[in-house]
Design a protein that fits this description.
8-stranded parallel β-barrel; 9 helices
């Protein structure tokens, strides 16, 4: 199955990627429809920024921002994911038509979140998280970032199961950019296929993040055009799809949809079994014997 494209819809005034362009209800709904038209399979709607330096909004304000947008887009047939760390917001979103919970804290901000997902019988995305990016105590040190993220996600998978979430409803996200520097992000992406070994479906969310801008322009990362960051994101989509990711979370769906389609086509044409080597004529015998030492040795 093709890797799914999750389009990002931030109903916030301070998003790092779009600067609050979709904060207004009508603008948010219009953008959600545009994301669908451009190839998004899922719309991920969030009303609280998690960028560095952001402050948390009240539950009432978060609900005011997202619930009407969810209700409107779900009525149009959109598959909605609610991006929240609050169990009550998740429940309201599901009642309004959301089909997936996306919790960047993996149930660590509110343990009740895992229970809410289990009771509702909906998929929940568990992201690797070591605290809010605004928290000075968030831990950035890793001796082996891939192994440690795997281990910490495994613990959250166990917590979700204990709370009643079915195995098929657990989705994991390695948390690119959360409590990780650029080197950590690249190491995770270089071994992204290892996260499919944990069992649950895999979401990769690297879209437009700062480490991509730093790669493209180390001196002035803030000046890198959005189109260039989206091109870098599409490259990560292709690699993630090749590794077996269930979905990628992106701001610009079209390029990532094309990248996922290309990856799917290549995978479909990959040989199912290892091809046998061609029969080659034997090398003429040498003075020392049969000449077998000159024949190619094919791996078995």
């Amino acid at each position: 199955m093709r890797t799914q494209i999750m389009g990002v819809l931030n109903v916030t005034p301070d998003s790092f990627s779009d600067g609050g362009r979709w904060f207004d209800f009508s603008a948010a709904v219009d953008h959600g429809m545009q994301l669908l038209a451009n190839g998004a399979d899922i719309i991920d709607i969030g009303g609280e920024s998690t960028r560095p330096g952001s402050t948390r909004v009240s539950a009432e304000e978060e609900a005011r921002r997202v619930i009407p947008v969810i209700r409107k887009l779900a009525a149009q047939g959109a598959v909605i994911s609610i991006d929240t760390m609050r169990a009550d917001i998740a429940r309201q979103a599901i009642d309004a038509g959301a089909a997936i919970i996306n919790d960047v804290s993996a149930g660590q901000a509110e343990a009740e979140m895992l229970t809410a997902a289990g009771e509702a019988g909906v998929p929940i995305i568990l992201m690797h998280w070591r605290g809010l990016l605004s928290d000075a105590t968030a831990r950035y040190h890793y001796d082996d970032v891939v192994a440690e993220v795997q281990a910490e996600l495994t613990e959250r998978i166990g917590a979700a199961r204990a709370a009643g979430v079915a195995d098929e409803d657990i989705i994991i996200d390695p948390g690119i950019g959360f409590s990780k520097n650029a080197e950590h992000n690249w190491q995770l992406l270089a071994q992204i296929e290892r996260f499919t070994e944990l069992g649950p479906r895999l979401l990769v969310a690297a879209s437009r993040k700062r480490f991509l801008s730093t790669l493209l322009g180390a001196d002035q990362p803030a000046d890198i055009p959005v189109a260039d960051r989206d091109a870098a994101t599409a490259a990560i989509t292709a690699l993630s799809a090749h590794a077996g990711a269930w979905a990628v979370r992106v701001h610009e769906p079209r390029a990532s949809l094309i990248a996922a389609q290309v990856a799917e086509a290549i995978s479909a044409h990959r040989p199912r079994t290892r091809p046998l080597p061609l029969d080659l004529p034997e090398t003429p015998a040498t003075d020392s014997g049969t000449g077998s030492e000159h024949r190619p040795s094919w791996p078995t």
